[in-house]
Amino acid sequence: MKKTKEFDLWVWISIAIMALYILFMVYPIVNMSLQSFFDSKTGAFTLDNYVKFFSDNYYFSTLFNSFKLSILVTVFSLILGVPLAYFYNIYKIRGHSLLQLLIILCSMSAPFIGAYSWILLLGRSGVISKFLKATFGLVAPSIYGLGGCVFVLTLRLFPLVFLYVSGAMKNLDNSLLEASYNMGCSGFKRLYKVVIPLCSPSILAAALMVFMRALADFGTPLLIGEGYRTFPVEIYKQFVGETSVNHNFAAAISVIAILITAIVFILQKVAANKLNFTMNALHPIEARKAKPFTNALIHIYAYILVALSLLPQVYIIYLSFRNTSLTGNMFKPGYSLKSYQQVFTDMGDMVINTIIICGAALLIILVMAVMIAYLVVRRRNVMNNIIDTFSMIPYIIPGSVIGIALIISFNKGLLVLTGTAIIMIIAMVIRRIPYTIRSSVAVLQQIPMSVEEASSSLGASKMKTFGVITVPMMMNGIMAGAIMSWVTLVTELSSSILLYSSRTITLNLGVYIMVSRGCDGKACAISTIITLFTVISLLIVNKLTGGKEVTL
Known about the structure:
Elements: H1 9-35, H2 48-55, H3 57-90, H4 96-108, H5 111-122, H6 127-136, H7 145-169, H8 174-182, H9 187-198, H10 200-216, H11 219-224, H12 231-240, H13 247-275, H14 292-320, E1 322-324, E2 331-335, H15 338-346, H16 349-378, H17 382-392, H18 399-409, H19 421-445, H20 449-457, H21 462-490, H22 496-499, H23 507-517, H24 520-544
Antiparallel strand pairs: 1-2
């Protein structure tokens, strides 16, 4: 008698996840790429969109500008972040736990809000600019253009370098550092001769992450670029321009953006593989107290850098309690809750939309990420390897490109999603699911397979073992990744700005709308609410990890 093949639900889960990726990510990107080869007026096949980009210096300069901005931000982030991680792990710093939470908070702020706040501080009518002019007769450095973009993005992205390098230094053996110290290699000399070479794979990974974030950033150059055109801003203008639009040309720029980021990603991976090696810290680094003068310099460097990075958020919170005019356009003497009253009275739906849209996206991310992590770690095969690859693609695609791809693919035909909350949720899931997948994979790899095998040997089905044994053991990693995803969902702008409608405005979009209308009081109040979401999320992460230090 022929044995009946056992039904395997995980096979069907793999097929379902693959189908979702093909429908909502692969198909839109392929469709957008095809649209880039057609004329927007005649519909005829053409290469004119690409010829136009590379032959017209106005457009081609956006490529150079984006690379210049991203490289400068990456270099300065490494210059600031690597020494900070070194000081933090090698020497005793007072309030080190609080310092790390503040550093993480710096990186979690919405980029558009940071740029807006620096305008209020160092803009032409900024409070610092006015103070320097009135008190010392000095003209403050301009916050606009390339310099301003590099300054703002560096202060937001150096924490990523700190987290990556700190994670690598946890694996360094203290005996190596002691040996170098005994040979007269200490301080900065030990940093660049011993620590940096040993942490080079993580430094490269941090450099890639910073480069990608800077290349894809939309809010900062849009607000303070002032003529310094970058890829994401040009894509946005071509797609929703005030005077004219050219969706096909926007699609061509998007394809070029994908190719460039993919090349950078591949080059980084090749370099990282060549430098890759394994370290086991039998004797973890023990932080020691530095000499008095060095100790003072370390504390000054660490806390001033973090204070400067946090200054925009603190100032925004302060302004949110300032008294405003009836319209919320101007600040008046005194303090009140008028800005918050105006937000919740006139724009209360933003909070509800943020909770519903971001909450729905987070729920989908949680379910899919856990399943993908299990497929990747426990049931590795060709299909699941492809799913794993698909899950990493959003790392190299700017948010504005994903937004355009979804609009082009779902604005007509059988499945019309443009203008709905669903399309925003899809974009958020695509962009932010990698965070939870990676953290879930890392935790699952540490769970012995024998635990699940023991459950199966006792008669539990594969799905019951997964739900009752595996998922609870993964919970800390799942929740940590989920909360990090939540923070990035709340601060999402680059794709949402293309996909939202009047009924789906979220908090971060609300800041953009209020800033564009000149309603500074409301913008500050909404920004403060977003900061509150972020702080609560970080406190939950800290609670779930038992106060353990967060690294990448």
